[in-house]
Design goal:
- This protein is mainly beta.
- The chain folds into 2 domains: 76 residues, no CATH class; 453 residues, Porin (Beta Barrel).
- 14% of the residues lie in helices and 42% in strands.
- It has 5 helices and 25 strands.
- The strands form 4 sheets. It has a 16-stranded antiparallel β-barrel with strand order 3-4-5-6-7-8-9-10-11-17-18-19-22-23-24-25.
Length: 556
């Protein structure tokens, strides 16, 4: 009986070995099948020759034979795959209730996506309401209160900033009110469309803010085309929802508007890894509306053409620390032309190619620009910048320096140059750390580990910053008329301190206080015009004041 059982087991092994290779088609599979047959025969011979099995061992062999016979039956019942040399087992039918579209929450943005993930649509929103109080000395008569703004100091109905400079607006402003959508289209394509209804000093009627398409099939590089802010600098790439203070530093804000910045048409190729980022973009005009007037921008005679490049990364890093180093550069190949050919002489080469640099004092409830070069006749423009940041646990220090050169069309005047920098620090007292975003080589908002209502108090961050942006060139001395090459745009110094309270990942309240000092001489070359609103030649038109602001922010 024992030998019969052994024989049956050996036969089952032999049949199983044959069945497992019955559909082999390649020489390799045929050799494997022969090897299995030889092994089964050897096992059969060993069991037939054995004579010391006990009753228990005999029962175990019977059980093994039954299991092998069942496996053989399964193999025989399974049909081969079409056109293949292997056994294919039928797949279970798809459930009739399987969802075609699923809800998502990619990067904190709610949306929907197809079950295979090839198509998605995420909703984006960011609303920031700023309220501010400007602590200025009381405005006096124009003849004695010489605080002014703008390159043209005469007052007119179209130039009211000179009056605003003496009485900055207390109140509120929806700094940003952005709504849009983004997502994937097939495996390697992404898109984004955003509209903005916010503004500086007063809200816009609404304008297209971002509209781009991106191809990501050339890993690790991506190609983006449309209207967007090209990768330009460290502070420029801070998410507007995650900036440590209410506005970017003046030097960075002026740099990003040179040939990059918001609503800029561009074509960009960029790539990044865990510790590096490289980008290059060809840029054009700024789309949208005049933020000061809320009306359409007049068509230019020639749009700007520029180039923007950046190389940055974290070459030194550890488990809870990193050092960021970076460099960026911009070149304006052709400045925009707003005036066209000479009206007096049609044969005169095109005039009106200009570059201007200006900024509000890092708070936009009042949109008055207190430093401003005015339009500089220009053939080309250059910007170079350096970036540095050091993060250790919940502490972050960062700084940037930017230098600007303008090549004038008037060969009888010298080419002006300007420079600005900032130092900024933050500390998350609740122990979290700002996230480093490798896709932008910059620092995003911290994760909120314990939200209000979820057993915690959110995250609290203390911030401080000092900035210096000097738009003076060959300014000369007080009381003197400017030279033909002079640019009296102003030298602005700002010291700011703030507190950020992240209640949860979507709600933030920020408090800020700043001290502003502006040193500037009058750019006018005459003492008074017929209206009597101009200031004396070379008069000091700068000022100093304090400002206090609160921002309430909701975004996802």
């Amino acid at each position: 009986m024992l030998k019969k059982t052994a024989l049956a087991g050996g036969v089952a092994l032999t049949v199983l070995a044959w069945s497992a290779g019955a559909f082999a088609a390649t020489p390799e599979e045929e050799e494997a099948r022969i090897a299995r047959l030889e092994a089964a025969v050897a096992a059969l011979q060993a069991q037939v020759q054995a004579d010391s099995q006990t009753a228990a061992e005999n029962a175990a062999l019977k059980a093994q034979v039954g299991s092998l016979e069942a496996k053989v039956a399964t193999l025989e019942a399974a049909p081969p795959a079409e056109g293949a040399g292997s056994v294919a087992f039928p797949k279970p039918p798809a459930s009739a209730n399987a969802p075609v579209v699923t809800s998502t929450f990619a990067n904190g943005e709610p949306g929907i996506a197809t079950a295979d993930g090839k198509f998605s649509l995420n909703v984006y929103a960011l609303v920031q309401l700023d309220t501010a109080l400007y602590d200025q000395s009381q405005a006096g008569p124009l003849a004695t209160d010489l605080r002014r703004d703008g390159p043209a100091l005469g007052y007119s109905s179209s130039n009211v900033d000179n009056l605003h400079a003496r009485n900055l607006k207390n109140g509120d402003d929806f700094r940003r009110a952005r709504f849009g959508f983004s997502g994937n289209a097939l495996d390697d394509f992404q898109y984004r469309v955003v509209f903005d209804f916010g503004g500086s000093g007063v809200e816009n009627a609404g304008q297209l803010y971002e509209a781009w398409a991106q191809y990501s099939g050339f890993h690790p590089f991506k190609i983006r085309v449309g209207a967007f802010a090209p990768l330009q600098g460290l502070s420029d790439q801070d998410s507007t929802a995650a900036q440590p203070l209410l506005e970017r530093p003046a030097s960075s804000d002026i740099a990003r508007g040179f040939a990059a910045g918001d609503t800029r048409t561009a074509a960009q190729i960029f790539g990044y890894g865990d510790h590096w980022l490289a980008s290059y973009a060809v840029t054009g005009r700024i789309i949208g509306v005049d933020s000061s007037a809320g009306t359409g921008v007049a068509q230019s005679y020639s749009d700007q053409l520029g180039m923007v490049a950046r190389l940055a990364g974290t070459p030194f890093y550890g488990d809870d620390w990193r050092i960021h180093l970076g460099a960026h550069a911009q070149y304006i190949v052709t400045p925009p032309n707003t005036t066209g050919p000479s009206v007096a002489n049609a044969t005169t080469p095109l005039t009106g190619y200009t570059i201007s640099l200006s900024d509000q004092p890092e708070l936009r409830v009042d949109g008055t620009k207190l430093i401003n070069t005015g339009n500089i006749d220009a053939r080309h423009g250059e910007n170079e910048g350096a970036e540095f940041a050091a993060q250790w646990k919940s502490f972050l220090l960062q700084s940037e320096y930017d230098h600007f050169d303008i090549q004038r069309t008037d060969l009888h005047t010298s080419n002006p140059h300007f420079a600005g920098y900032y130092f900024e620090g933050s500390w998350l007292v609740t122990g979290a750390a700002r996230k480093y975003n490798t896709a932008t080589a910059a620092f995003d908002a911290p994760p909120v580990l314990k939200s209000i209502g979820g057993g915690g108090i959110g995250e609290v961050e203390l911030t401080v910053r000092y900035t210096d942006m000097n738009l003076n060139y060959d300014a000369g001395q007080p009381g003197t008329a400017p030279s033909t090459s002079a640019i009296r745009g102003g030298d602005q110094h700002i010291l700011t301190g703030g507190v950020n309270w992240y209640l949860n990942p979507y709600v933030r309240v920020a408090f800020e206080a700043q001290h502003v000092v502006i040193k500037r001489l009058s750019p006018d070359t005459i003492a008074n015009n017929v209206n009597g609103y101009d200031v004396p030649i070379g008069a000091r038109i700068g000022q100093s004041y304090n400002a206090f602001a609160v921002r309430t922010q909701v975004g996802f």
